[in-house]
Design a protein that fits this description.
253 residues; 29% helix; alpha/beta; Stationary-phase Survival Protein Sure Homolog, Chain: A
Length: 253
C-alpha cells in the first residue's frame, strides 16, 4: 500500500512525525507537506504565484503552499503512482464541530478525496502541544492499529473522508473508538483590537473563548468521555431535509 502523508502544521511538525511512524507499519510512505504552518487555511489554493517544491529526501518534499496545494502537487506531479490513501495530520489541536470548515488538516484529506483518493484526517485534541508531545508519542502504536483497521475496511465509504480526533489523555486511558457526528463550536471575543508601532489600529483574529455543544453521539462528546472519535464527512453539503420540506418554507419568486 502507498500512503501520502501531509498536514497543515508544516514539514517539521511533531504531529506529522507521529503520523509517519504510524503509517510506516502499513506500507510505503510519501510525505509532501507545507514548509511552514498553514493552520486555518481551509481548502485554499495558491493561484497568484508559482509553487516551488523542494525535495528533502527520497519520498519527502516541502512546498511553499497550502495543504491543498501539497496534496494536489503530490498526486498530480510528484508521486510516481497514485497513493491508496491520503493521511493528514496529526494536527496540533482538535478538529471537531465547525473546525472542519477552517481546518487545513481536513482540507488535505478532502483534496485527496476530490482527486479520487480516500482520505483520513487525524487530530490530537490538546491545545498545549509542547506539554502533550510525550503523551502523543504514546498514541503512535494505537494510531497505527486504527489506521490499519480503517484502510482495510472491506468497503471504505465512497465519496467520504474520515475525521479522527484523539483525546489528550495517555494512550492507556483511551476507552475505545466511537463513530460520531459533528458537534457545534462557537468562538466568542475572538478579535483583539491593537495598535501597531505607529499608533494605527490593527486587529488580531484568534484567542477568545470557545463554547462546545456536545450532544450525545457527537465528536466532542466522545472525546470528552475518553474515546477516539471517527466522523465520516463528505463533499456534498446540501441540506437534504430542507429540500424535502421545501413546501413549508419555499415560495418561488
Amino acid at each position: 500500500m502507498l500512503l501520502l502523508c501531509s498536514n497543515d502544521d508544516g514539514i517539521l511538525a511533531a504531529g506529522l512525525s507521529c503520523l509517519e511512524q504510524a503509517a510506516r507499519s502499513l506500507g510505503d510512505v510519501f510525505v509532501v507537506a507545507p514548509d511552514r504552518e498553514q493552520s486555518a487555511t481551509s481548502h485554499s489554493l495558491t493561484l497568484h504565484h508559482p509553487l516551488r517544491p523542494i525535495q528533502l529526501a527520497e519520498r519527502r518534499w516541502q512546498v511553499d503552499g497550502t495543504p491543498t496545494d501539497c496534496v494536489m502537487l503530490a498526486i498530480e506531479a510528484l508521486m510516481p503512482t497514485r497513493p491508496d490513501f491520503v493521511l493528514s495530520g496529526v494536527n496540533h489541536g482538535p478538529n471537531m464541530g465547525e473546525d472542519v470548515l477552517y481546518s487545513g488538516t481536513v482540507a488535505a484529506a478532502m483534496e485527496g478525496l476530490m482527486l479520487g483518493v480516500p482520505g483520513i484526517a487525524v487530530s490530537f485534541a490538546g491545545r498545549d502541544f509542547g506539554t502533550n508531545q510525550a503523551m502523543l508519542d504514546q498514541h503512535v502504536e494505537p494510531l497505527a492499529a486504527l489506521l490499519a483497521h480503517l484502510t482495510s475496511l472491506p468497503e471504505f465509504p465512497a465519496h467520504t473522508l474520515l475525521n479522527v480526533n484523539i483525546p489528550p489523555i495517555p494512550a492507556a486511558e483511551i476507552r475505545g473508538v466511537k463513530l460520531t457526528r459533528l458537534g457545534r463550536r462557537v468562538f466568542s471575543d475572538s478579535i483583539a483590537k491593537m495598535q501597531d508601532p505607529w499608533g494605527r489600529p490593527i486587529y488580531w483574529i484568534g484567542g477568545g473563548s470557545v463554547t462546545w455543544t456536545a450532544g450525545e453521539g457527537t465528536d466532542i462528546d466522545a472525546v470528552r468521555a475518553g474515546f477516539v472519535s471517527v466522523t465520516p464527512l463528505h463533499l456534498d453539503i446540501t441540506h437534504e431535509a430542507r429540500l424535502e420540506d421545501a413546501a413549508e418554507w419555499w415560495k418561488a419568486p
